[in-house]
Design a protein that fits this description.
The chain is 64% helix and 0% strand. It is mainly α. It has two domains: 165 residues, no CATH class; 114 residues, no CATH class. The longest helix has 34 residues.
Length: 279
């Protein structure tokens, strides 16, 4: 394990700067870079590697995406690992909440709303557990440690390998925050010129538009049907909407998975439009 030449503190794997004093990691003898590190460079914002890694968790996917497209952080393997892990934690948390919400909706429909009250306490406990684990991840990053979330940490480590972010991972990032991340990858970072990344960015935006259109159409359909004042019909419509949202959410996960593997998941009409827009 490498140590800082100035203060002697242990350096995290892939760190470009000392987490204790902020001194850049000097290249090894012969011009080579120490294992897991990149050549030293000045950080305009003054953030050390551990601080940048901690910031990546602050708003999970949003700050993680920022660190993955911004110099010099995207070139620091330690920061890149934590930024990807923060993004994966966000995806996992959203997935858990969507499934929890689905179960709650079904129980509420079957028990005339009582099930929703029963699920209130588990919801509070789940939110508290996620918040505490998030705070723990921030602390570990600040402590200059490469703590790995079970399974997700291993995936993040594989994605963070190499001198720069894999283009397949960049394509997957286009979907993480729906149209927001799609727009970001089209206008910022070094990936906006890659045709495959552009395809995924445009497809993310169009998929978001599809979701909004379906939601608006369903809202008006429910509004019209509500005129019949039928509880059974209302419950039925609610369960159908639950199924539609779960299908769209599953499509979101599938799009990210395929993109991270360097593949394209073709959606009728949307994919053709995205291909034309990507150039």
């Amino acid at each position: 394990m490498a140590a800082c030449a100035k203060c002697g503190a242990t350096l995290a794997e892939g760190a470009s700067f000392c987490g204790s004093c902020g001194t850049p990691v000097a290249p090894a003898a012969g011009g080579a870079t120490p294992a897991g590190a990149v050549a030293s460079k000045t950080v305009p914002s003054g953030l050390t590697s551990n601080m940048a890694a901690m910031v990546a968790y602050v708003l999970t996917a949003l700050t993680g995406l920022f660190m993955l497209i911004t110099e010099p952080y995207r070139d620091d393997r330690f920061v890149r690992f934590h930024a990807i892990q923060a993004t994966l934690y966000y995806i996992a948390a959203v997935t858990v909440w969507v499934l929890f919400w689905g179960v709650t909706q079904i129980l509420a429909a079957l028990t005339l709303g009582i099930g929703a009250l029963v699920m209130l306490i588990p919801a509070v406990l789940l939110a508290a557990a996620m918040f505490l684990y998030w705070a723990f991840l921030l602390f570990k990053a600040y402590s200059n440690e490469r703590y790995e979330i079970p399974y997700l940490g291993k995936v993040a480590g594989q994605m963070a390998e190499g001198p720069a972010l894999n283009l397949g991972v960049a394509g997957a990032l286009a979907y993480v925050l729906w149209f927001i991340s799609g727009i970001v990858l089209l206008v910022a970072g070094p990936y906006r010129t890659d045709r495959n990344v552009r395809f995924h960015a445009f497809q993310s935006i169009l998929y978001s538009v599809l979701y909004v259109v379906v939601a608006i159409a369903w809202f008006f359909a429910v509004l019209i049907i509500s005129l019949f004042h039928s509880y059974v019909l209302g419950v039925f419509m609610g369960l159908i909407w639950l199924a539609i949202r779960l299908v769209l959410f599953g499509g979101w996960l599938l799009l990210m998975q395929r993109a991270s593997s360097g593949q394209r998941f073709e959606i009728p009409v949307i994919s053709q439009l995205a291909t034309k827009m990507a150039g």
